[in-house]
Amino acid sequence: REVYVVSVTPGVRLLGSAEVAVVVVLAVLVLFTTILNSIAERVKEIGILSSLGLSPSHIAQLYIFEMVIYSVLGGVLAYIVSLGLVAGLALLNIPTMGLYANYTASGTLLVFGIMFFSILSTALYPAYKASKLVTPSLERKWKISTKPRGDVWNIPLPLRLASKLEAVAFLEYIREYLDYRRVERVGTYQVLKYELRPGKDNTLAEIIAECQLAPWDYGIRQFVYLKCFKLEGGYNFELVLKRLTGPYSSWIISNKSLVGDIRLQILMWRSLRDNEKERYLRKGRSLLERWRL
């Protein structure tokens, strides 16, 4: 004799995928035009971000991350609304014609996947268009505009401050940051010693520091001068690097990280809250009184 065991296993079959694809394509086109229109309306906002120092790649990443957040929220809300709709129809005894809630992981991933990739695919081109609004050139990242002459490298910094007090306060902010970089051989450079002092002639004030650059075995050392000088209408800043020891080519390559770090601190300075900036302004005021400037 043979014994047969018969069991019923419920299954789910996806029907109407072609009709759903048409709806998804229409939704993608609507989202695409909506995002493009939002970028056209936010041209001023993009200009503000550019003035704060964000590069075109940063602008593109900002919009892509924004769309990713919207896609996740949209998927969560769509799933919750669909569950609530099915539950409401069941409570009201309304025939659902085979429509029921799917609590399986595959169904959840399908909803999130459609929502995520639909929104993300529509955000790529608008993000690219937003990045093109920052600069008309093909250069996508900020680069050092000068080259070293011998062992000296003069690099103008993208910062201009209106008042003497704010200029000295910014130098105090950088001095405090350099003190943090005195930790031995952590990161791409180490500050060995530094000094904030008043300048001479057209220079208002300057920071002079001695640094060691990675790779540490190469023995790359240099003097770093961060100078603040007055021009018509404000105060500009310049970074001067003077090589002491180490291979010349490695000195140039290693300094890109240091210069990029200083530029990042410029962006951080512009984004400081008023109460945080006031602390440096008070220190700058005491320095001006001490220097009698």
What is the fold's blueprint, element by element?
Layout (H helix, E strand, L loop, with lengths): L16 H25 L1 H9 L4 H36 L13 H28 L19 E10 L2 H17 L8 E10 L4 E11 L6 E12 L2 E12 L2 H23 L3 H18 L2
Low-confidence region ranges: none
What is the CATH class name of the largest domain? Alpha Beta
Strand order of the largest sheet: 1-5-4-3-2
Q: In the CATH classification, which architecture of the largest domain applies?
A: 2-Layer Sandwich
Could you estimate the helical fraction of the residues in percent? 40-55%
Average pLDDT confidence is: 83
Whole-number total of structural domains: 2
Distance between the termini: 109 Å
Into which percentage range does the β-strand content fall? Answer: 15-25%
Number of helices: 7
Q: Structural class per helix/strand content?
A: alpha+beta
Largest sheet: 5 strands, antiparallel
Radius of gyration: 29 Å
Shape: elongated
H and E order: HHHHEHEEEEHH
Q: State the total count of DSSP E strands.
A: 5
**CATH topology descriptor of the largest domain:** TATA-Binding Protein
